[in-house]
Amino acid sequence: MEDQSSQKSWFARNWGWVIPVGGCLTIIVLFFVFLGSVIFGVSELMTGSDPYKEGIAKAQQDDYVIQILGEPIEADGIMRGEISIKNSTGKANISIPIKGPKGEARLYVVGDKYKDTWEYSEMYVIIEETDEQIDLLGYEND
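The structure assignment produced for this chain is given below.
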């Protein structure tokens, strides 16, 4: 019968597969941490942009949107679309899910940036339940 003090430790018996598996797991974890950081960073850039902030502010101040969705109106999910800015010019075409206590909608913002100033060609809310479109720029809906 073999003495217990002369038995190899678990690590000594299994080091041949522990190190490769541990290394792979470390690489996988680091990849997901990196990916999460990139996604979070892009999301923060988008939600911190002027088109996003100005669109949300307009929706929160529009009496008809408030009547339908209730207050407070807030963003409710992941924004879709794109924003590109180079120096003092840029383009935005984004869609933001919003909600209030009475319902949900989607906010659309389309605009161009010239000399550090955003000019919006479209900014409207579509109510989820009725598909009604509410123009936030102040001119008549088509």
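Interim note for the steering committee: Residues 51-135 form one domain. The chain has a mean pLDDT of 84.
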